[in-house]
Amino acid sequence: MSKTSAARSSSSVVRRAAAALAGAAVVAGAAAVCGPGVAYSAPRSTTPSATDFSDCPALPDGVDPARWRCEVHTAAPRLTIGKVTVDLAPITMTHAEGPLPDGSNGQVWGAMHTAPTAVPGGLTGTPAGDHVPVLGMAIQPEYGGRSDFYTGRFSLRFRLIGPLLPHGCTIGASEPVDFQLKRSGPSKWVSQDPPVIEFSAYDDTFTAPAAEHCGPLAPSLNRRLGLPAADQNLMSYDASYTFKTYDQLT
Question: Is the pTM of this model over 0.85?
Answer without folding.
Answer: no
